[in-house]
Design a protein that fits this description.
single chain; alpha/beta; Rossmann fold; 6-stranded parallel sheet; globular
């Protein structure tokens, strides 16, 4: 993780993973300030599933090691930070940054590129963002076909689209870890841009997939809402992998706090 751009930001550690202890507004301001200072970067928003893979999988740690900013997306991470006595100020969700980052970029005249997403979602999300923020500089939209990463001609078309557009911000909606692999592969070609992997968030922005109500998000139950929408895809992630790891995370946070207070 780059120390040049993030050295002044407060951090905590969860299970050995360093996270910036900042609010969504501070995250957006930091990204845009860095852009205007001529510095590019990569922000990752780990949720419980990402943290599980970071802790348990060396390949994931190696992949995420290139990130410049890591902020917690997921209430279990917020709860764990509080339980261990190093509270994060709030959840910083990639799905929220998909709206707040373009909103502030529009005010500063910075451009945004939409990459990936489900069929039609990126275009519909762009229409929504432009309706909300008429001054938004939309640098481009590119939705590669399934399996593009194994097709040299499609990869060349993607690279050319990005190089021609020269965006300040690239929102990559390909799901994890595909979006992180692509970002790590391409970011050096646009070193002055900021990159953010956002999963399904274009579909949230345009309304194709409904996010949980705010009160459900505050109680950390957004995963239940998602599970009911996509049970076949998400059952293993949430029920078999997520719940046991979440219990381990919270239990470990309590023990960490007790260990510090007993010293």
């Amino acid at each position: 993780m780059s120390q040049i751009q993030t050295s002044q930001l407060p951090t905590i550690k969860l299970m050995g993973v360093t996270l910036q202890a900042i609010t969504q507004k501070q995250c957006v301001d930091h990204i845009l300030d860095q852009l205007q200072a001529g510095h590019g970067g990569w922000v990752i928003t780990p949720n419980l599933d990402h943290l599980r893979r970071l802790v348990r999988d060396a390949k994931t740690r190696e992949l995420y090691d290139g990130a410049d900013l890591m902020v917690a997306d997921g209430m279990p991470l917020i709860w764990a930070s509080r339980l261990q006595g190093t509270p994060l100020p709030e959840r910083v969700a990639g799905s929220d940054l998909t709206s707040s980052l373009p909103a502030e970029a529009a005010k500063r005249g910075l451009s945004v590129f939409l990459l990936g997403g489900a069929d039609g979602a990126a275009k519909k999300a762009a229409d929504v963002l432009l309706t909300r923020h008429p001054n938004l500089n939309l640098a481009g939209i590119h939705v590669p076909a399934f399996g593009f990463e194994n097709d040299s001609s499609q990869m060349a078309a993607l690279e050319n689209a990005l190089l021609d557009a020269k965006p300040d911000i690239v929102l990559v909606a390909l799901g994890s870890p595909k979006q992180e692999v692509l970002i790590k592969q391409l970011r050096d070609k646009l070193p002055g841009a900021w990159w953010l992997g956002i999963g399904i968030s274009f579909s949230f922005v345009c309304g194709d997939v409904q996010r949980a109500p705010r009160w459900i998000q505050r109680f950390g139950l957004e995963w239940v809402h998602r599970l009911l929408q996509e049970p076949r895809r998400l059952a293993r992630r949430y029920l078999i992998d997520g719940i046991p790891f979440g219990i381990a995370l919270l239990t470990g946070a309590i023990w960490s706090r007790l260990g510090r207070t007993s010293v």
